[in-house]
């Protein structure tokens, strides 16, 4: 049929963007408001130097032949010195630079304002710190010119209760250099129930109290799925119907708590901010939060930078280090192939 009236398409096609007003909701929908599981779980502290140090000690194993004759003189020394460890402070930053023109314009959801940009970049900064603390990166002293100081991630600070893939080598503290060394990756393989139970036992025997299994979402999902299999015989798909509201039916198809053979109740916690160690490969941590601290030389700050033109600049920063006071209190499984199903 011939066009008998001017229509919406014609109005929109007019030169320089048409003559129809845009209909844009004045709100910005952000899907990235993700919690910080590790940060929220561990304690916070401060330190006063770029290098922050602590000492580590443990009791000797008990002996069963500790018998002494009556009236014997004291002729042995059971004193024991502690081990001194240290990590370096890492500086993490975010920058904002907005022109005066953008700030004066009527932007959608106030995205062009300093307040919006500072708020969102601060969230990103905290996410960066969360992700870094769960890496395998070793510590770096750094210098004042070209090399930044690096805080060792958790994967480099624990060495005793760790299971690695074939040819993999654990990291740990090097007493000669005073640095934490990053572990050497091994061959990726499937996560197994045996590996989990072995590490939990190793941590328990060493004196740790595991409260959380933390890993990336694909790993936690595959572990939960495995616990429903006939091999695991741990969980059964169930449903629950309320007697007061018969139509409301809730299906339970996941496991999020693991009770160890030693009476410890361990939360299975996924962390969406934990990065892969390599493509398709990641780690699971057995955490005892009481021995972990996020320590700050300088806490999260926002500073105005000098003006150099028609713009305003802000710098957000934090100087921090992760401190694992007793590495034997923690456990880990490295080199997990995220694509493989969990096995016995």
Report on this structure.
This protein is α+β, with helices and mostly antiparallel strands. It is built from 7 helices and 16 strands. The chain has helices spanning 8-12, 37-41, 100-104, 114-133, 154-157, 193-206, 217-226; strands at 43-46, 51-56, 83-88, 90-99, 162-163, 172-174, 179-181, 212-215, 238-241, 249-252, 257-259, 265-270, 281-287, 292-304, 311-324, 331-337. The radius of gyration is 27 Å and the shape is globular. It starts with 7 loop residues before the first helix and ends in a 7-residue tail after the last strand. The mean pLDDT is 88.
Summarize the structure.
This protein is of the alpha+beta class. The protein is built from 7 helices and 16 strands.
The H-and-E topology, N to C, reads as: HHEEEEHHHEEEHEHEEEEEEEE
Top CATH class: Alpha Beta
Helix content: 10-25%
Distance between the termini: 70 Å
| Structure annotation, total helices | 7
Strand numbers in spatial order across the main sheet? 5-16-13-8-12-11
How many domain regions?
A: 1
Q: What is the makeup of the main sheet?
A: 6 strands, mixed
Structural class: alpha+beta
- Low-confidence stretches are none
SS elements, strand count: 16
Could you report the average pLDDT, rounded to the nearest whole number?
88
Q: Tell me the overall shape.
A: globular
CATH architecture label name: Alpha-Beta Complex
Please report which band the strand proportion falls in: under 5%, 5-15%, 15-25%, 25-35%, 35-45% or over 45%.
25-35%
Rg measurement, Å: 27 Å
Stated plainly, the CATH topology is called phage-related protein like fold
């Amino acid at each position: 049929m011939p066009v008998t009236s001017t229509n919406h398409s014609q109005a929109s096609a007019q030169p320089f963007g048409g003559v129809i007003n845009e209909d844009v909701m004045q709100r910005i929908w952000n899907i990235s408001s993700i919690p910080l599981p590790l940060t929220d779980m561990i304690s916070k502290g401060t330190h006063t130097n770029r290098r922050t140090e602590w000492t580590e000690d443990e009791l000797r194993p008990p002996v069963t032949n500790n018998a002494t004759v009556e009236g014997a003189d004291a002729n042995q020394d059971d004193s024991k010195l502690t081990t001194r460890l240290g990590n370096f402070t890492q500086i993490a930053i975010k920058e904002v630079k907005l022109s005066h023109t953008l700030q004066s314009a009527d932007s959608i959801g106030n995205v062009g304002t300093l307040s919006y940009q500072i708020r969102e970049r601060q969230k990103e900064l905290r996410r960066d710190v969360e992700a870094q603390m769960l890496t395998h990166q070793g510590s770096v002293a750094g210098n004042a010119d070209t090399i930044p100081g690096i805080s060792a991630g958790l994967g480099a600070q624990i060495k005793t209760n760790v299971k690695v893939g074939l040819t993999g080598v654990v990291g740990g503290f090097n007493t000669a250099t005073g640095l934490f060394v990053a572990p050497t990756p091994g061959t990726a393989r499937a996560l197994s129930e045996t590996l989990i139970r072995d590490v939990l036992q190793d941590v328990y025997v060493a004196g740790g109290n595991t409260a959380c299994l933390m890993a990336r979402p694909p790993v936690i999902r595959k572990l939960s799925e495995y616990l429903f299999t006939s091999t695991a015989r741990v969980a059964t798909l169930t449903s629950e119907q309320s007697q007061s509201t018969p139509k409301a039916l809730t299906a339970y198809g996941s496991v999020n708590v693991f009770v160890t053979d030693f009476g410890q109740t361990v939360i299975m916690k996924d962390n969406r901010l934990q990065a892969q160690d390599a493509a398709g490969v990641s780690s699971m941590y057995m955490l005892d939060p009481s021995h972990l601290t996020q320590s700050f030389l300088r806490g999260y700050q926002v500073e105005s930078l000098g003006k150099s033109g028609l713009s305003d600049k802000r710098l957000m920063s934090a100087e921090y280090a992760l401190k694992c006071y007793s590495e034997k209190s923690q456990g880990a499984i490295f080199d997990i192939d995220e694509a493989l199903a969990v096995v016995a």
